[in-house]
Amino acid sequence: AFKAAVLIQRWYRRYVARLEMRRRCTWRIFQSIEYACEQDQIKLHNFFSYLMDHFTPSSSKERDFISRMFVSGESFKEAELEKYCDYESMEVPDSYTGPRLSFPLLPDHATALLEAFKQKQQLHARYVLNLLHETRKHLKQLPNISHVSTCYSEEVTVCGDLHGQLDDLFLIFYKNGLPSPSKSYVFNGDFVDRGKQSLEVLIILFTFLLIYPKEVHLNRGNHEDHMVNLRYGFTKEVMQKYKVHGKKILKMIQNVFCWLPLATLIDQKVLVIHGGISDTTDLDMLEKIQRNKFISVLRGKKRKESNRNVEIQEINGESQVEADAAGNEAASSLCPQPRPAQAPSMANRLEFSRWVRQTVQEQIEWCRRLVDISESESEELTYSSMVSLTDLDGPCWTRQEEWKQILDILWSDPMPQEGCTANTVRGGGCYFGPDVTGKILEKYNLQFLIRSHECKQEGYEFCHNRKVLTIFSASNYYEIGSNRGAYVKLGPDLVPHFVQYQANKTAHTLTMTQRQGFLVARISRVEESAFRALREKLFAHTSALISAFKAYDKDNTGRIALSNWATAVESVLHLGLPWRMLRPQLVPSTADGMLEYKSWLDDLAMEQRSQEHIQSSLLEVIYRNRSNLETIFRIIDRDHSGLISFEEFHQTWKLFSAHMNIELTDDGINDLVRSIDFNKDGNIDFNEFLEAFRLVKQSQ
């Protein structure tokens, strides 16, 4: 009996170990593909940024288009934004049966919203805009770093990424209770994108923020950025739900996002930030930055920065000749110092007074441009502007330095090795080691950091000797069953208590035996989904893989050793996956250890063609570039109408042709755009945009 028990125990342990290994491999696949996608987004954005920095507009119309392409949120002054997003002129029809909001908000309003969203009801656009207006007004008065104390409530609950998963937010409130004077919450960014109910999540969080401004705190995440929203679904979601007023709602949300606080400090001992830190993180600088300047953190505005540096050299008394010649040319063309007109005679006091006022006003405007204060920013005093005014004698940071501070805290990840290196996997922020964590904690007298930004299988994870805690609240993030969500509760002793969950109705009603079978089936389902995504990735790089395989096939036999297959695949995809371990799931085994790579790739093509009936080589390119194409389409479609006007296409093509040195007349561009408009309705929709791409590829 004892031997039998030991035998069963060994069998069971091996079985569990194999399941765990499958789960970890699946996890690596999902995470690698996700980070590769983020890299693509930043590369695409950097490409457009490069075009903008090296494109000289030839007319005011082109200048307007360029300024709108990435900084559309800055093109509105305070009064203009409120006029554009005027909710008071909107009428709510009598037939509307959804929740109604009146301000100031009360707890009953929040309860009504929760019930309405459970019933799949939609909040009227008037109330959405009104809520965003009030939220923006409140956020503008908040500091960059919020301060929370456990003295005033029993505990503080910190939640990580929600990513538009409303069921997870409902589950958190069900388990932990709604926000109240005795129940404080910190939501640590990434409220939107990927999930299908991002707007509902945002509405609920903003509602509770206004009802309990001292108990509910929101940090900005890297997805609270309109450029990221273009790729990951939030922009599309808003336009689908609010076809008439969607553009106004998006414009207002853009502006609200840039006013979100950057961090939260609990009892002066626990720092809560979305991504992480770097070896240059400076909390004193973060407290004084005008955070609303950074509508999109992806773009650092290098062009303006170089101009500003040149002019700061002039102020400091450095020789203009010694400064960089190119920078001076840009500075003189973009922001020349005004030369005062000839002063009138002192005898005419009225004329002289006018001259003084005009000259002073010109100098003030020049100084505003010099320090990069956008005219669109509010003239009313905000918390950050008051901090800046009270510290005029303090250090002067460049915009690039400020931008890097924000980029690092929103995009960085911890690593087990010492030091601080560029985050090449995501394409933004940095990797910081335990030594960097230790220095920051010691410098600011902190106990530990709480961050989010990374999906964890159990919903949370400690690293750096338990000095860094990652908390992630979106369960089933990659696939149903892929991960748990979690939140953490901190009392006055600041000892973290975790609550894990999975928003899955099926698992709650199962017996113990059924749960074991459900676990195996769930891992199999998640694993299948991961390998399907990986096969799509392999198929999308067919041409590059053939070239890599041929490097090992010197005799052109069409066959390579299975041992070389893994090396060749990694050299093309750069996903950092354990390809030798994954090989049995992707490649058929053979007795001689050789792979006929062309027939293997043909099988991949057949699998994808069964889903979309397109020529194989063309489908490969579509798979590889569809996300980029959709993002480019949404960048050109500045009014988010789902259509590119001829004017939008015309200006974008001028940008591309200037970069690629292609001479094309206005008539030539008009002929091009008319040829893409297949249904001749005067606009280009995404299907026409994609179809034009297919036709070009076919002709090649």
UniProtKB/TrEMBL annotation:
<feature type="domain" description="EF-hand">
    <location>
        <begin position="624"/>
        <end position="659"/>
    </location>
</feature>
<dbReference type="InterPro" id="IPR013235">
    <property type="entry name" value="PPP_dom"/>
</dbReference>
<dbReference type="GO" id="GO:0050906">
    <property type="term" value="P:detection of stimulus involved in sensory perception"/>
</dbReference>
<dbReference type="Pfam" id="PF00149">
    <property type="entry name" value="Metallophos"/>
</dbReference>
<dbReference type="GO" id="GO:0030145">
    <property type="term" value="F:manganese ion binding"/>
</dbReference>
<dbReference type="InterPro" id="IPR029052">
    <property type="entry name" value="Metallo-depent_PP-like"/>
</dbReference>
<dbReference type="InterPro" id="IPR002048">
    <property type="entry name" value="EF_hand_dom"/>
</dbReference>
<dbReference type="GO" id="GO:0043409">
    <property type="term" value="P:negative regulation of MAPK cascade"/>
</dbReference>
<dbReference type="InterPro" id="IPR011992">
    <property type="entry name" value="EF-hand-dom_pair"/>
</dbReference>
<dbReference type="InterPro" id="IPR000048">
    <property type="entry name" value="IQ_motif_EF-hand-BS"/>
</dbReference>
<dbReference type="GO" id="GO:0051879">
    <property type="term" value="F:Hsp90 protein binding"/>
</dbReference>
<keyword id="KW-0479">Metal-binding</keyword>
<dbReference type="GO" id="GO:0007601">
    <property type="term" value="P:visual perception"/>
</dbReference>
<comment type="similarity">
    <text>Belongs to the PPP phosphatase family.</text>
</comment>
<feature type="region of interest" description="Disordered">
    <location>
        <begin position="319"/>
        <end position="342"/>
    </location>
</feature>
<dbReference type="Pfam" id="PF08321">
    <property type="entry name" value="PPP5"/>
</dbReference>
<protein>
    <recommendedName>
        <fullName>Serine/threonine-protein phosphatase</fullName>
        <ecNumber>3.1.3.16</ecNumber>
    </recommendedName>
</protein>
<dbReference type="GO" id="GO:0004722">
    <property type="term" value="F:protein serine/threonine phosphatase activity"/>
</dbReference>
<keyword id="KW-0844">Vision</keyword>
<keyword id="KW-0106">Calcium</keyword>
<comment type="function">
    <text>May play a role in phototransduction. May dephosphorylate photoactivated rhodopsin. May function as a calcium sensing regulator of ionic currents, energy production or synaptic transmission.</text>
</comment>
<dbReference type="Pfam" id="PF00612">
    <property type="entry name" value="IQ"/>
</dbReference>
<dbReference type="InterPro" id="IPR004843">
    <property type="entry name" value="Calcineurin-like_PHP"/>
</dbReference>
<keyword id="KW-0464">Manganese</keyword>
<feature type="domain" description="EF-hand">
    <location>
        <begin position="664"/>
        <end position="699"/>
    </location>
</feature>
<dbReference type="GO" id="GO:0005509">
    <property type="term" value="F:calcium ion binding"/>
</dbReference>
<dbReference type="GO" id="GO:0005506">
    <property type="term" value="F:iron ion binding"/>
</dbReference>
<dbReference type="InterPro" id="IPR012008">
    <property type="entry name" value="Ser/Thr-Pase_EF-hand_contain"/>
</dbReference>
<keyword id="KW-0716">Sensory transduction</keyword>
<dbReference type="InterPro" id="IPR018247">
    <property type="entry name" value="EF_Hand_1_Ca_BS"/>
</dbReference>
<dbReference type="InterPro" id="IPR051134">
    <property type="entry name" value="PPP_phosphatase"/>
</dbReference>
<dbReference type="Pfam" id="PF13499">
    <property type="entry name" value="EF-hand_7"/>
</dbReference>
<keyword id="KW-0378">Hydrolase</keyword>
<keyword id="KW-0677">Repeat</keyword>
<feature type="domain" description="EF-hand">
    <location>
        <begin position="540"/>
        <end position="575"/>
    </location>
</feature>
<dbReference type="InterPro" id="IPR006186">
    <property type="entry name" value="Ser/Thr-sp_prot-phosphatase"/>
</dbReference>
<keyword id="KW-0904">Protein phosphatase</keyword>
